Amino acid sequence: MDTNNNIEKEILALVKQKVSLIEYENYFSQLKYNPNASKSDIAFFYAPNKVLCTTITAKYGALLKEILSQNKVGMHLAHSVDVRIEVAPKIQVNAQSNINYKAVKTSVKDSYTFENFVVGSCNNTVYEIAKKVAQSDTPPYNPVLFYGGTGLGKTHILNAIGNHALEKHKKVVLVTSEDFLTDFLKHLDNKNMDSFKKKYRHCDFFLLDDAQFLQGKPKLEEEFFHTFNELHANSKQIVLISDRSPKNIAGLEDRLKSRFEWGITAKVMPPDLETKLSIVKQKCQLNKITLPEEVMEYIAQHISDNIRQMEGAIIKISVNANLMNATIDLNLAKTVLEDLQKDHAEGSSLENILLAVAQSLNLKSSEIKVSSRQKNVALARKLVVYFARLYTPNPTLLLAQFLDLKDHSSISKMYSGVKKMLEEEKSPFILSLREEIKNRLNELNELNDKKTAFNSSE
């Protein structure tokens, strides 16, 4: 690969870490980097048509600027890098291309299959449920809801179901809740709801990504409620993906929460070390990048459980090695990946720690703040103490008050108990749970940072 292609791959790999798979395929998969026009403080890109140029600029321009300014990719070494997206030369935009662009909103990505999904102990249950659903002529469970943290393969498994169903000549609709909302509003404005209902209710498989974003939108929830009921009544398979369990989707109507739990729910757990290493090896093969075994092991051990971040790390090592004309070894990998290993959990608030633990254990925050003999609540309270001692400067007395503990000396016992379990490594569940909570903390803290930056810019 030449240097310019490497720069493009690194930029797109960084984008993949920030957006959903469907967003990436819809908007960024056709984006091309223009090295000839680009300079230190400005990056030029080509898109195949004006619609994509306008959409990406409006919706993701700020994200691209942030990525280029913070990561110093290729020649873009300026403190602030601007972005320009233009229509690619010598490309005719005809009616058919516009039809394809609209159709991709509900299409299935054919590169995500059961065959190339890396199966481990962390996701075997989800994999088996998904295969059974895809292979059955009538829904074995309805609906199916898979939930878990970002970048764990939920969207991959959703597309794999869609691809298998398409092989059986089934009618499949795969859509994000955001695109479902956009389509709903468009048909509502055009007073053409019959067309909308036909599109989403007359299918064999209805696959919805990011189901948690339905919450807080009464008209959309009403429409989805009726869509769900009709599909279910006609024995059409419904599969939903969410970042949390139904009962933890705050603001979602109770009648929808109830329906989400009619069938089966399964949690996608963070990958264990063995599975992470298998994922790293697979991503190296897909990207045609050769890494020494010790470098692949280092990525698996030190980069987060987010699969997109692991792939981004692989590409970043390759790009930097090419730019520096250096041999890839462990020292190079450590240097290149130093910024990816920063622990964003540092400086977490007690509220974020409480929320991360609650989401990971499928509990409400209010349940954890009250002493209980229930095993999962007791464990949750210990984990809050552990992470609070690890990442916050809060004194023991304040932490005891936060958890409504009369005797603050019990804080030390709770912390030591969790620490001992982790050090002995006798419980894979606890080790996996620790990584999941850390990932959720990272996400919550990064979200808070973005909100702070946005508010300060106003």
Helix and strand layout, with pairings?
Elements (H helix, E strand, L loop, with lengths): L2 H14 L4 H8 L3 E8 L2 E6 L2 H22 L10 E6 L7 H9 L20 H12 L8 E4 L6 H14 L4 E5 H13 L3 H9 L3 E5 L8 H16 L3 E6 L11 H7 L3 E4 L5 H14 L6 H10 L4 H18 L5 H7 L13 H11 L4 H4 L6 H17 L4 H7 L7 H15 L3 H30 L1
Parallel strand pairs: 2-3, 4-7, 4-8, 5-6, 6-7
Antiparallel strand pairs: 1-2
Helix pairs in contact: 1-13, 5-6, 11-12, 11-13, 15-17, 15-20, 17-19
Folded structure, characterized:
- The chain is α/β, with parallel strands linked by helices and 458 residues long.
- 56% of the residues lie in helices and 10% in strands.
- The strands form two sheets. The protein has a five-stranded parallel β-sheet with strand order 5-6-7-4-8, sandwiched between helices.
- The longest helix is centred in the last third of the chain and has 30 residues.
- It is globular and about 70 Å long.
- About 3% of the residues have low confidence.
- One of its GO terms (biological process) is DNA replication initiation.
Observed structural traits:
458 residues; GMP Synthetase, Chain A, domain 3; Rossmann fold; Helicase, Ruva Protein, domain 3; 20 helices; 56% helix
Please provide a brief summary of the model.
Helices cover 56% and strands 10% of the residues.
Low-confidence stretches: 91-105
- Strand order across the largest sheet: 5-6-7-4-8
The quaternary state of the protein chains shown equals single chain
Helices, by number, come to 20
For the record, give the distance between the C-alpha atoms at the N and C termini, rounded to a whole number. Answer: 42 Å
Mean pLDDT score: 83
Structural class: alpha/beta
Under CATH, the homologous superfamily of the largest domain reads P-loop containing nucleotide triphosphate hydrolases
Order of helices and strands: HHEEHEHHEHEHHEHEHEHHHHHHHHHH
Radius of gyration equals 23 Å
Strand runs, count: 8
CATH T-level topology of the largest domain: Rossmann fold
Biggest sheet character: 5 strands, parallel
CATH architecture annotation of the largest domain: 3-Layer(aba) Sandwich
Strand content: 5-15%
